[in-house]
């Protein structure tokens, strides 16, 4: 059996999984790990192999040292690069700009092109690039594949992709709606026709990736028609710490009246807003406990979250014209019964009916939670971006 090593490199951490591309969405990977607090005095490497966890605490000076040590720990457990047959290394890259609409084999030129896109994703692409360079140095004989979060949305209709901003300015600075979570939305939208037994070429659906970061997408016969995130992952739905859509005039108002700098506003909107800014927590389990305790701030935060979610669902119903399925995925979407029920409450006139008993079932399997007579089918589909990356790497390297 051959495996794909999937790497998601962040600025101070590296997540990785060893994945069989032939596995199902709900199968556990053979091994997974997290190198955390890179560059800090006290870091750690967490390894899970077939459900058995281990942790080593040490100073992780840089990405190179962290990944090399992680591979040594995997080797010691019999699942490292020296024991297993890897057919490729798949790398998550957040921003592909207008350049990348498909996975690509990484070489020096591709590295340079990813580097050129850093101004569009200054927090993410440099870290992704660090992981690529380190992994290519350690595993030079394997093909390395870049899979881009934005790729699925690369060919959206111009009416959805472009902003009503001066053409020359937009062209010069590559301003458009790129969208994110694309690997997840594509994966989910491919699973839905299988669950429903429908032809994917004749399925119109709304996919909802609801985690700490959250986004919605309208998918028409397998192609993205619209998505909630924009030039950056700040736009769209209310998120754990991000505002989602706001009047851009708020930025000017804060700069003029509060004398806040661009960097201060950036931190405010990305890290101190959303559910956390409204209620003080960004974990929905903690938010639910606060609501149950009668906390008014938590209740308000939840209602703002649901209101914005319903706005996007409604707008995508109009864009698609006919909706065959609405699907919830990611941490909140897969686990929060109330969010699913409230997001689609009182929509029977549009053919949307959730079955309360089906909705209450906890399961790791893809499942339908709508009633039998619901015209629009409502589903919960666990997303698996690592499996999707492994499958794309396999398609590119193995044909």
From TrEMBL:
Its EC number is 2.7.2.1. Gene3D superfamilies: 3.30.420.40. GO terms for biological process: acetate metabolic process; acetyl-CoA biosynthetic process. The keyword Kinase applies. Mg(2+). Can also accept Mn(2+). Catalyzes the formation of acetyl phosphate from acetate and ATP. Can also catalyze the reverse reaction. This is Acetate kinase. The gene is ackA.
């Amino acid at each position: 059996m051959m495996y794909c090593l999937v790497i998601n490199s962040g600025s101070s951490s590296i997540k990785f999984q060893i994945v069989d591309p032939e596995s199902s969405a709900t199968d556990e990977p053979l091994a997974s790990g997290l190198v955390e607090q890179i560059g800090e005095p006290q870091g750690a490497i967490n390894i899970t192999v077939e459900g058995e966890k281990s942790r080593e605490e040490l100073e992780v000076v840089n990405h190179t040292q962290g990944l090399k040590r992680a591979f040594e720990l995997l080797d010691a457990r019999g699942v490292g690069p020296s024991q297993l047959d890897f057919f490729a290394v798949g790398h998550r890259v957040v921003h592909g700009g207008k350049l990348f609409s498909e996975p690509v084999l990484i070489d020096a030129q591709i590295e340079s092109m990813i580097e050129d896109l850093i101004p569009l994703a200054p927090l993410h692409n440099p870290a992704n690039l660090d992981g690529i360079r380190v992994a290519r140095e350690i595993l030079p004989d394997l093909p390395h594949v870049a899979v881009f979060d934005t790729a699925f949305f690369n060919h959206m209709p111009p009416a959805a992709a472009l902003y009503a901003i001066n053409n020359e300015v937009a062209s010069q600075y590559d301003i458009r709606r790129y969208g994110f979570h694309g690997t997840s939305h594509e994966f989910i939208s491919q699973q839905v026709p299988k669950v429903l037994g429908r032809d994917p070429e004749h399925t119109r659906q709304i996919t909802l990736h609801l985690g700490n970061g959250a986004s919605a997408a309208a998918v028409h016969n397998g192609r993205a028609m619209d998505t909630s995130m924009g030039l950056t992952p700040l736009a769209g739905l209310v998120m754990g710490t991000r505002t989602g859509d706001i009047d851009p005039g708020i930025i000017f108002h804060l700069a003029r009246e509060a004398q806040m700098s661009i960097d201060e506003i950036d931190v405010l909107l990305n890290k101190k807003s959303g559910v956390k800014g409204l209620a003080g927590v960004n974990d929905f389990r903690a938010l639910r406990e606060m609501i149950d305790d009668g906390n008014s701030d938590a209740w308000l935060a939840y209602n703002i979250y649901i209101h914005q979610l319903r706005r996007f669902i409604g707008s995508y119903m109009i864009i698609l014209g006919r909706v065959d399925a609405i699907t919830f995925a990611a941490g909140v979407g897969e686990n929060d019964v109330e969010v699913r029920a409230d997001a689609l409450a009182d929509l029977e006139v549009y053919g949307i009916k959730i079955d309360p008993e089906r909705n209450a079932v906890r399961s790791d399997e893809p499942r339908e939670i709508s009633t039998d007579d619901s015209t629009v089918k409502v589903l919960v589909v666990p997303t698996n971006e690592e499996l999707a990356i492994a499958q794309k790497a396999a398609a590119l390297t193995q044909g």
